[in-house]
Amino acid sequence: YVSNQMRTEELAALDAAHHLHPFTNGDELNAKGARVILRAKGVTLTDSEGNDILDAMAGLWCVNIGYGREELAEVAARQIRELPYYNTFFQTTHVPAIALATKLAELAPGDLNHVFFAMGGSDANDTNIRMVRRYWAAKGKPEKQVIISRKNAYHGSTMGGASLGGMAAMHKQGGLPIPNIVHIGQPHWYAEGGEMSPEEFGLMRARELEEKIAELGEGKVAAFIAEPIQGAGGVVIPPESYWPEIQRICDAHEILLIADEVITGFGRTGNWFGSQTLNIRPHIMTIAKGLSSGYAPIGGSLVCDEVAEVLNGSGEFAHGYTYSAHPVAAAIALENLRILEEEKIVEHAGTVAGPYLAEKWAALADHPLAGEARSIGMMATLALTPDKASRAAFASDEGTIGLICRERCFANNLVMRHVGDRMIIAPPLIMQPSDIDVMIERAVRSLDETYDKVKAEGLLKAR
Ligand code: PLP
């Protein structure tokens, strides 16, 4: 029988024998053994060897309130005793669903007053595909089917989510995207802006949306979907010119705007929603992750009054999940929102931790291996480059240097993630300046070690 009393090697061997990991090269991982995380508190994970690891990724961008909050355990236990499960299909509802939907309507910007629940972000985006097509059909425009997304976007891992996403590696596996989903360029000035100024480049990339609508015909386009700030794509903070132009284009044409706020929601950018930080007015917003701070799998689609009215007025929407509005997950999410609000954690991210991180993170740009170092709220990105001036990529296979850096971080008890040769963080919003100091100190040490290794192995070459 498996327990946390077992030795690390035994646990890792059983994991290798029976557990297929997401987004992982299985043989490679199994050869070295996965690191076993036993418990966590605040911003710190503890592994089976007794190491305390600073979690600068908040799990997978989700543990916004930090680990180990007793209140959530209590709410979960209470809800399991009272009503562990019931569905919302059969003309029934329950108090956690009502309470959470009501609270979300209060917190969400504009008239996003309605919510369709899912278990996470991928399936919420699947809902969005079906919902926008249903909406246009109900309005007598069934030919409005196409959803425009962006290259290097991440919208999940289901067939629908991965199709909306613009990850080339995901599309290659499994014959994606599904029909009627197309992708325009991303506003990634650092990697793709060439000689253009960031503002010119941002405008150019936004106008690709208008060009695509013209090419397809407005009568064919249902929606545009985008993350306010691309997360898994490498924390791509768009030039300031980008979102106002996207908003103008969406307003000028008859299409719905879906903001995928799975990462940027619930305080990540220093406001409740990234749409508020970037002044975006979506018709639909995808939510998950920080909704429950990862304590339970729950996500959903926040929907504006008009879309909800059309949906409600057009007969049965033949869509739903067994665990839509799961009462235990909903109760946990509601308690998480209470903590975020009452403890002013979103304000802390916006006015204390975020600005402190911005200052310390920006200074990383002085490191010999660093190109741009930027942050917004509590998410940040650091490009690694062999040549600051030209923003050149490394000659080695993309991701080689990033992986070295990530492994140095892990060895130094810091979880940072790499996307290609770019390092990213999204720490718990509760981080104090003293935690940020420790994080930066470990990041610098890891960068120094990466630099030494890259130099020693002759990898400090531009492509
Ligand atoms: N959308 C965005 C923007 C995400 O970052 C993610 C996950 O990282 C998803 C959707 C998918 O969410 P999930 O993994 O909960 O299905």
From TrEMBL:
Stored Gene3D superfamilies: Aspartate Aminotransferase, domain 1, Type I PLP-dependent aspartate aminotransferase-like (Major domain)
MF annotations from Gene Ontology: transaminase activity
Stretches that traverse the bilayer: none
Organismal lineage: Bacteria, Pseudomonadati, Pseudomonadota, Alphaproteobacteria, Rhodobacterales
Cofactor: pyridoxal 5'-phosphate
Coiled-coil intervals: none
Statement: the UniProt record of this protein carries the keyword Transmembrane: no
Presence of keyword Zinc: no
Protein name (record): Aspartate aminotransferase family protein
Pfam families registered for this protein in UniProt: Aminotran_3 (PF00202)
Family of this protein: Belongs to the class-III pyridoxal-phosphate-dependent aminotransferase family.
Entry-linked InterPro entries: Aminotrans_3 (IPR005814), Aminotrans_3_PPA_site (IPR049704), PyrdxlP-dep_Trfase (IPR015424), PyrdxlP-dep_Trfase_major (IPR015421), PyrdxlP-dep_Trfase_small (IPR015422)
Keywords from the named record: Aminotransferase, Pyridoxal phosphate, Transferase
